[in-house]
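In this supplementary section we document a worked example of the pipeline. Step one takes a protein sequence of length 93 as its only input; no multiple sequence alignment statistics are reported here. Step two produces a three-dimensional model, which step three serialises into structure tokens for compact storage. The input and output of this example are shown verbatim.
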Amino acid sequence: MTKERYIHKLVMTFACYENGMNKLMSTNEGLCGRSTEMIFPKMKPKDCLCLFQKRLCEKQVRISCSMRKQDRDMNIDLFKELGETKLWANGRM
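The serialised model returned by step three reads:
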């Protein structure tokens, strides 16, 4: 990574949860200085529900396309709760 022959020719991608990334970056002072941070925001709970429904359809799992508002709101609330847990990583189905 630090050899001259790799200057402007090498792309490295590190991906993990925030705590793991902080630990990795703290292992070498120069690593942070050579890195550009990209943070991908969490999906909104309603978008998680839409993605979940889409993936179920792709797997030919039948679901109601016209969910009652009460059921939809309940499912969105569940995704909101999941999103607040420490290791939630949405959109990785």
